[in-house]
Amino acid sequence: MNKTVGRVDRVVRIVVAASLTFLAATPAINGGVAYGFLAVAAYLVITAITGHCLIYRMIGIESDVHGGEYHSGPTEAD
């Protein structure tokens, strides 16, 4: 099964998850909103670790690069 989450996307997910966790721990955000932030943060961390995002798969997005470099035009072998 191909991974759908690329390296840069993983780093962004970890940073956003840390930010949401910090906000949930502050007294300004409490109750259901804080639990919602923690749930989203947990999902982001899990998808960053595994490299598989169910939402990306459902809508057909892949931020992971497969294969080598992209070349347009003739190659040296041509």
Quick recap of the structure?
56% of the residues lie in helices and 0% in strands. With 78 residues, the protein is an all-alpha fold.
List the helices and strands and how they pair.
Elements lengths: L6 H19 L6 H19 L3 H6 L19
Keywords: Membrane, Transmembrane, Transmembrane helix
Protein name: DUF2892 domain-containing protein
Pfam families: YgaP-like_TM (PF11127)
List key phrases describing it.
78 residues, mainly alpha
Commentary on this structure:
InterPro entries: YgaP-like_TM. Residues 1-62 form the Inner membrane protein YgaP-like transmembrane domain. Keywords: Membrane, Transmembrane, Transmembrane helix. This is DUF2892 domain-containing protein. With 78 residues, the chain is mainly α. The chain has a domain at 7-59. It is 56% helix and 0% strand. The protein has three helices and no strands. Helix 1 (7-25) packs antiparallel against helix 2 (32-50). The mean pLDDT is 84.
Shape: elongated
Integer-rounded radius of gyration: 18 Å
- Structural category is mainly alpha
Strand content: under 5%
The share of residues in helices is 55-70%
**Mean pLDDT score:** 84
Low-confidence stretches: none
Give the SSE order as H and E letters. Answer: HHH
Largest sheet, in brief, is: none
Cα distance, first to last residue? 33 Å
Number of helices: 3
Topology, number of strands? 0
